[in-house]
Amino acid sequence: TGGGKSMLFMLPTACAAAAGGGLTIIVVPLASLRSDTKERCDAMGIECVEWSGLRPHKWASIILVTPEAAVPDSFRDFINRQRAIGQLDRAVVDQCHVVLDLGAGGGCRSRISGLGGLVKAETQLEYLTATLPPADEAEFGRLVGCRGRTPGLAQARAQPRGSGAGRRGPTNVRYEVQWYDGRAEEEEDVVAALVEERQEEARGRQIVIYCGTVRQPEQYAKRLGGSCYHRGVGSDEAKRAVVRQLREG
C-alpha cells in the first residue's frame, strides 16, 4: 500500500494527454476511492470525470466507472467507439481484490460480468491491488475472464516489523501478530485494549481497525468513540466525510 500504484495509469495518461489524446478507463469499486482518485488527477492537471451514460465525456483523459456502470450496452458501445478511433489506451481495475468479494455473492454476478466485458475490449488491462493473496490469483483470473492467459505480475512484498534494512517492500507498512487465548478472552476486548495502548504512541494520529463484518465496526465505534465506515454507512457524501476525517484528523 502507498507504493505508487496509481502512477501506473496517471503518468502515461498525463503523457498521452500532453501529446494530444488517449483515454484511460478506471474501474473503481469503492465510492471513497473514486473521489480520492479524482482529487489526485485534478491535482496533476489530468481531465478526470465519473462516467455518465446520459452524457458521455468524450473530452476526458480518465473516466471513472463503477462495476455496475460497466455492464450496460451504453458503456460498452462507448468503449467500442473509442477503440475504433484509436483513442482507448488502457482499462484499469483499481483495488481489484474486491472482485473476490463481489464474486462471493450470487446477487453480484452482473458486476463481475461488467469487468469481464473489459477483457473483450482488446486493450491493455491493468489490475491493481496491494492485498490479493497469491493463493487467490487463479480464482481472480476466472472471475474476470482471464482463464488460459498468463498475466504479467509485478509484486512488492510487505515486511514484518523489525525486519532488516535492504529488503525490498513498501516502507510505510509494518505488521506484527499478537496472540490471545480465544477461550478466555473476547476478541473485542483484546482489540479495544490494544487500541487504547497504541493511542499513547499515536499522539493524535489516526488508528484504523479493519473488520470482517459490518457489525464489528459499529461495535468498535460505539465502544471507542470513533467513526464507522462500511458500504451501508450513509450517502456518498457521508462516506466522503468519514474518509476526510481519517485523512485529515
Automatic annotation (TrEMBL):
The keyword Membrane applies. The keyword Nucleotidyltransferase does not apply. SUPFAM superfamilies: P-loop containing nucleoside triphosphate hydrolases. Residues 1-150 form the Helicase ATP-binding domain. Keywords: Membrane, Transmembrane, Transmembrane helix. One of its GO terms (cellular component) is chromosome. InterPro entries: DEAD/DEAH_box_helicase_dom, Helicase_ATP-bd, P-loop_NTPase. Coiled coil: none annotated. GO terms for molecular function: 3'-5' DNA helicase activity; ATP binding; four-way junction helicase activity; nucleic acid binding. One of its GO terms (biological process) is double-strand break repair via homologous recombination. It comes from the Eukaryota. Belongs to the helicase family. RecQ subfamily. PANTHER family: DNA HELICASE RECQ FAMILY MEMBER, RECQ HELICASE, PUTATIVE (AFU_ORTHOLOGUE AFUA_6G14720)-RELATED. This is Helicase ATP-binding domain-containing protein. It comes from Parathielavia appendiculata.
